[in-house]
Amino acid sequence: MTVRPTQRQRVFLSLCACLLIGPVVAAWALDRADAIWGTVRGTSLGQVSVPWTIVELALGTGLLLAVLVGLTLWCGRPLRQLSATVRRLGPQNVAERTDQASGRGEYGSLAGAIDAMLDRVAEGHAGQRRFAANASHELRTPLALQRTLIEVGMSGDPTPDQLQLLTRQLLHTNERNEALIESLLVLAEADQAVVARTPQRLDAIAADVVAVHRQLADAAGVRLETELEPVTVAGEATLLERLITNLVHNGIKYNVPGGEVCLRVGPGQPVLRVTNTGPVVPAESVSRLFEPFRRGRGDRLDHSAGAGLGLTIARSITQAHAGHIEAAAPVAGGLDVTVELPAPT
């Protein structure tokens, strides 16, 4: 493996070269200049060729400048290589790397930081491409269904009952599209870091969410239990409300009749915990629950319920608050989701 000198070593070697070569060249140049002056005044002990001596001085000066320029370029070579790498970057070339991260010294550290940044950019770019592909897939089916329903309604002479059925189906499909688009907009907003964080009473926000979801839980035959203690976190109230809403709604929707959803808020970490009974979730599928348009078994969603972005939005909101969200699958079934959020500073 080739050992590359660090930037400090490059500068040190360049200074040493200048200190060694500079005095020698300066003494030689002074000697030549003195010889020329003595020849012109006629006081020199030996005659020298003035034109040739001037040429020697010019060549010597040029050689010295060439050495200085070479040393300067040698010192700046790693930085020029990094600049060339950055200039080659683009939407279609996010796999470019500096190949200098293994080097020592300042440039090695800088190259390593740039490579790490490029890794994050590539990961985010790949995630956006996957999300765009998934969103396109999810929107294509309901839009095709809408077109089919409209074509059926326009063909022939449908009866009032058929028109009413088509209207209800179109309304249901349109409502799902609206929910999906709204979720996509919330997800795009949640993916941005929350800049203005103010102290928020998480227990009060949780109590409001529970009050709204009581009727939904009763209709589904699910008990909604709470254990709320006063807790203040740093964040944005609307996004925190959406975070708790998604977790509670997810727990109610993917449950069983007679099941339970328990919402806990308390001091320490995690500050928020939502557990629910329900079908058994395979352990290998838990990590995929936070991916867009996925359910417990890791399958793609059908179009019968929800937009499939609840846990994805919950993760984005948590990350936007510099927090951490984690899910676990109890052996008896259901899901156990914990959220850590920073306290106000």
How does the SSE layout of this entry go?
Layout: H1 7-41, H2 50-88, H3 105-154, H4 160-190, E1 198-201, H5 202-219, E2 223-228, E3 232-235, H6 237-253, E4 260-265, E5 272-276, H7 310-320, E6 324-328, E7 335-340
Parallel strand pairs: 2-4
Antiparallel strand pairs: 1-3, 4-5, 5-7, 6-7
Signal peptide: 1-26
Organism: Goekera deserti
InterPro entries: HAMP_dom, HATPase_C_sf, HATPase_dom, His_kinase_dom, HisK_dim/P_dom, HisK_dim/P_sf, Sig_transdc_His_kin-like_C, TCS_sensor_his_kinase
Question: What labels would you give this structure?
Answer:
7 helices, histidine kinase, 345 residues, kinase, two-stranded antiparallel sheet, 58% helix, 3 domains, EC 2.7.13.3, alpha+beta, five-stranded mixed β-sheet, Helix Hairpins, phosphorelay sensor kinase activity, Heat Shock Protein 90
Describe it:
This protein has 345 residues and is an alpha+beta fold. It folds into three domains: 7-88; 115-190, Orthogonal Bundle (Helix Hairpins); 198-340, Heat Shock Protein 90. The protein has seven helices and seven strands. A hairpin with a 6-residue loop joins strand 6 (324-328) and strand 7 (335-340). Helix 5 (202-219) packs parallel to helix 6. The model is unreliable at 297-305 (pLDDT under 50).
